Amino acid sequence: MYKNELDRHIQNSTTSNSFVFFGESSFLIDSYIKKVTTIDDATILSFYYDEYDFNSAKAHLSQASLFGGDNVLIIKSEKKIPKKELDIFIDLCEKNNNNIFVYAYYGSDHKTYTKAFAKKNTMSVRFFNPNHNESLGIIIQLAKEKNVDIDRYAISHLLNIHNGDIALSSNEIDKFKVYDRTITTKDIENLVYGLAEVNIDELIKKILTKKDFKSDLLNILEHGEDEIRIITAITAYVTQLYMFNIYIRVNGAANALEILGYPAPKFVVDEKAALCLKFKPNRYYKLHNLLLSSELNMKSSNIDKSAILLSTLIRVQQLL
Fold this sequence. Notes:
There is one protein chain. Helices cover 57% and strands 10% of the residues. A 5-stranded parallel β-sheet has the order 2-3-4-1-5, with helices on both faces. It has helices at 3-12, 26-37, 54-62, 83-95, 132-145, 152-161, 166-176, 185-191, 197-208, 214-222, 227-251, 256-260, 266-276, 281-300, 305-319, and strands spanning 18-23, 43-48, 71-77, 99-105, 123-127. It has 3 domains: 3-127, P-loop containing nucleotide triphosphate hydrolases (Rossmann fold, 3-Layer(aba) Sandwich), CATH 3.40.50; 132-191, Helicase, Ruva Protein, domain 3 (Orthogonal Bundle), CATH 1.10.8; 197-319, Zinc Finger, Delta Prime, domain 3. The chain has 15 helices and 5 strands. By secondary structure, the protein is α/β, with parallel strands linked by helices. α5 (132-145) packs across α6 (152-161) and α6 (152-161) runs parallel beside α8 (185-191). The relative contact order is 0.09. β2, α3 (54-62) and β3 (71-77) form a beta-alpha-beta unit.
């Protein structure tokens, strides 16, 4: 099952009382745990990662609720819980409608749970990372719930600053609650700072202008930045440059609203418009192939990610 199907069940009040959540988006997993377990007068027992104890969990679902409501069991783990134990919790829910069980698996072995509970009434749901439009819709809805007045252009810019990270973007919405006015793209520029965004932008500019970038890269890594996030940030930046390149070739001048989906500051538009024309379309193709291959290599290999990253960035400059 996927998110859309679960949404229909929630809307129609036809959900099961046991759930297995997994997939690429930890943010969505956490969000839907709250949706299916926010119940008045429930007795909730939660295990986080290494806290899990089978006997305590089983006892919680086997006894009557202290307050006469539902017994809710939540298990969050990056390690796989033995299926026979999960089956016991699911069976206890099938025998008692006042039980609710959610197992949230944050590991990467997603295939394990795709069809593992097909013979049970449990809802096994895989959550993919939302695309830009889906993320936009989620943040718009969150802003409404938090009574934050912010337009879709500002939200789009917010997501771009955080490289599409919906968790970081949603945290910013909470911060905006103190402002009794409309939040604009200018406010986003002044109030929001992406995770190492300024440093990464400077790093990318040095790479693409064939300047020495090694000290910047070392500084960013020493401050705890993730190698994969750096490579995806570079890919996103190159993609934007390619979009600028195509638009300018067709229309003669850049229009940030039509290219990016939000009205970016003039200095940003001018900078990207100038840089994008330095590379021909075939060069963008080669850059994307290199960056995407390196990202895949990082995600599927146990070798040193920093070494892969450095090697990739050197090869990027060789392509320019």
